[in-house]
Every structure is written in structure tokens, then in C-alpha cells.
Amino acid sequence: MYRIGKSIAAALALVVATAAAVAQDFPNKPITVIVPFAAGGPTDTVARLVAQSMTTYLKQQVIVENAGGAGGTIGANKVAKSKPDGYTLLLHHIGHTTAPSLYRKLPYDTINDFEPIGLVTDVPMTIISKKDFPPKDMKDLVTYVKANKDKVTYANAGIGSASHLCGMLFMTAIQTEVTTVPYKGTGPAMNDILGGTVDFMCDQTTNTTGQIKAGKVKVYAVTTPKRVPSLPDVPTMQESGLASFDVAVWHGLYAPKGTPKPVIDKLTQALQAAVKDPNVKARLAELGTEPVPVEKATPDALGKQVKAQVELWSPIIKKAGVYAD
Ligand code: ASP
Questions:
Q1: In this structure, are residues 295 and 53 in contact, taking their beta carbons and an 8 Å threshold?
Q2: How far apart are CA 123 and CA 292, in angstroms?
Q3: Fewest beta carbons less than 10 Å away: which of 14, 84, 113, 256?
């Protein structure tokens, strides 16, 4: 008995010592952050800002890789199946928690296949359209979409994306379905809005602010209950008559399940440095948002958020009756 106890203690000591050594040495090569959407879109923008700041803190390159498709589930699956060593991370948004209700079969477990690192930022969305889309304001948009539902097209980043969620809520609210056009991310969707080949979409201000300010797209409303400081003239959906419409896109940083705790701790410190970084704050403010307070850039806060949001969206999505196979 005593001998077994001793060897268990020795083995445990070795595990602790190895974990400490891993953490001391971490990171000793570049870290890849997978963005589950196309380059040039809003999630990509947030990830690149954060990655740059984490690079400075960790003194090691943090690279962004885009793995778009299937509403973010392809990129999430890639990270779920990656080696849990802290060198492959996922920066995903609210869609991480709507996917389990939207997909009949997901190749990964949203809660149990990931280690949360921390929340990153909450980004408002905007309803925008191609420049020459006839409706003038939100009231007009609702009337126009209802009257032209067979020809109007709505762009999104696939089932499970934030743009899909926002569009689904909009269509449910006005009780009208239109044709949706899926992209690997709203970066490429924006190109088609600018080119006029698709009519309208709902997307994060991190993608739309520049185009709105340059007058290259029409904007109808912001999706948060409060107006966005960088777009003070744009009314909210609620002001425009869509009672209780409220969507903001929260983002989180994750590692694969089983990543050693000391490594997660170091990544959390780097994320916290990023959310405090004045450059990150200034750039996000220009894009209509701000990073989360440092106490939310923690595994605990993100873990709680994921569980709560999976529960929140499940009945709403079931009611909307939307599924992907
Ligand atoms: N905004 C996209 C979405 O609808 C994702 C992206 O391209 O960043 O989820």
C-alpha cells in the first residue's frame, strides 16, 4: 500500500513538474489562431487585432489562419481535432453556441471538446444593403421585403453564422422568408453587396462601419438596444419598430480540450494584455465596439457564457424551425 502510494506521489510530482516545464517553455514556436470564416471579414478583423497584441506579449508569432465554411463549424472542428498543446486556437463568435441547435449532427462537442481561454469583445450588428436598394429606412425595408419576397436576396456566412442568426430573427419578426445566399464569411459577402449582386445582409460593425461611412452601402439599423457611438445617426431596430430585437456578436478564444492548464493560463494572460492594449481599444472603437473588461477575458467567464448561450438559443432556434444536416 505504502509503496503504491509513494509511486503514485512520485508520478504526480513528475506530471506537475512536466506541466510546469511545458508552461515555462511555452510558446517556443508560432501559435495559429483559426478563424472559422473567410479572410477580410469581421471575425478575421477582431482575430488579427488580438493576434498582433498577443504576439507582442508572448514574444512569439501569433498567426491567423482562415478556415471558413458551414457557418463556422469547419474551423471549429479543425481546432477540436488539433493537438491540445496551445499552438492551435480558435477565435469564434456567438455562432459557436447556436450551431448545436442548428446542426442535426456536429462532428464535435461544443462544450466538451474545447478549453475556454476568455471572452474577447461584443460587436453590434447592422442591417445594410447594396447602395441602390430601393428602401429608404427600416420601415420601408420591411414593406419592400414583404412585397418582393420572391426576388429579394439576403447574404450570410452559412447556417450557424451570426449573419444567419440575425437574418433568421429578422425574417421571423416580419414573418417573411427570402432567399439566402451563403458565403464562407461576410468578407466575400460584402464584396457582392458592393458589387450589387446580392441585396442585403446583417453583419458586425467591424465589417460594415468603413463601407457605411464611405457611403458605399445603405444602412437601416443597428441590432443592439442602444445606438452605436461610431454610427450615431443610425437608429436601432427597436427604435425602428422591431420590438425587443437585440443581437450582439460576442467572441471567445478557445484551445482544444486537454491543453495543459499552465499553457491556458499563459494564453489567458496574453489575451488579457490584448483586451487592455490601447491600440486594440482604439481600433475597435473606430469599428463600433470595445474589448471586454479584463475580468471577462477568463476561462471561467467564457465557459459560463458558452453554457448559458447554448441554453438561450436552443428554444429560439427550435421555434424558428431552422436546421442544417
Ligand atoms: N460576420 C460573419 C458571420 O456572419 C462571420 C465573418 O465573416 O466574420 O458570422
A1: no
A2: 10
A3: 14
